[in-house]
Design goal:
The chain is mainly β and 269 residues long. The protein has 2 domains: 137 residues, SH3 Domains (SH3 type barrels, Roll); 123 residues, endopeptidase domain like (from Nostoc punctiforme) (endopeptidase fold (from Nostoc punctiforme), Alpha-Beta Complex), CATH 3.90.1720.10. The protein is built from 3 helices and 22 strands. The radius of gyration is 19 Å and the shape is globular.
């Protein structure tokens, strides 16, 4: 496969765009595209829908083209990995010329950001919120946990990837994205990454724990913390106890997820 043509590359220009299974606003939510994230246009259905593939994980679905900006041939320079991301839960990014504000979510891409000024393909902006710049921040378990904690109490939304609603694998994907590590969208795909740790007692902060259903299929994932705790999405982003059996919810005094495996995605300092 070669590099996609520029005319087939589009960038999300709104806060959060829905990626649907079918070309209908009533269709199943496959995932979400955040401000500044790229998709490759696979096909079009009239002027109402684009079938696209997400550039960071290959997820395919349908989007509303009114929510995207298609890059021109002269804008090849923008089709590159982003290293600066919004860190505030929700904060407005202000257009420099057209005097409008877009509220963007944590994890949104900020291209060519100098700490205030942001140059997107569809215009120049100013962002005064907190940012994370990977050129200045070293990937570490400390940084990963700091980002993850910002999502505490974020509500569950199947297919969600934003602070307004997120699912278990979306939570893991977005926090790793913000330390410069791209991982797949689903927990099944995530469960084969890295090194198999084996036992909960041998795990360390930043490892990923995967859980199975009654059919022994992977169906949940969480981020291991210290003191035998795990951060995951169950109704909301929360912390619970973890042992070799699974996740234990102290509020209802029972196990909610059965542990299948623990993986170490990367070696972080």
């Amino acid at each position: 496969m070669g590099r996609p043509k520029l005319s087939s590359i589009a960038i999300c220009k709104i806060s959060i765009a829905s990626l649907r299974q079918l070309p209908s606003h009533r269709s199943y939510l496959v995932s979400q595209v955040l401000f500044g994230e790229y998709v490759e246009i696979i096909s079009k259905k009239s002027k109402e829908w684009y079938r696209v593939k997400c550039s960071w994980d290959g997820t395919i679905g349908w989007v509303d083209p009114k929510q995207f900006y298609v890059l021109k041939d002269s804008q090849l320079k923008y089709f590159e990995p982003c290293t600066t991301f919004a860190l505030d839960h929700l904060h407005g990014i202000n257009s420099s010329s057209k005097q409008y504000t877009i509220p963007i979510s944590i994890g949104s891409n900020l291209f060519r950001c100098d700490g205030l000024n942001v140059k997107m393909p569809f215009g120049d902006f100013q962002y005064s919120g907190q940012i994370i710049d990977l050129k200045q921040s070293q990937s570490s378990e400390r940084l990963l946990l700091s980002i993850a904690k910002r999502y505490i109490h974020c509500p569950f939304l199947y297919g969600g990837r934003s602070i307004l609603g997120i699912d278990a694998s979306g939570f893991i994907q977005i926090i790793f994205k913000m330390i410069g590590i791209n991982i797949p969208r689903s927990c099944v795909e995530q469960s084969v990454l890295g090194e198999d740790i084996g036992f909960q007692a041998q795990s360390r902060v930043g490892d990923l724990a995967f859980f199975e259903d009654e059919s022994h299929q992977i169906m949940h994932v969480g981020l291991i913390l210290d003191d035998s705790k795990i951060m995951h999405v169950h109704g909301q982003v929360r912390t619970d106890l973890l042992d070799q059996q699974g996740i234990y919810d102290r509020s209802i005094k029972k196990y909610t997820f059965k542990l299948r495996t623990i993986r170490r995605v990367s070696v972080m300092q």
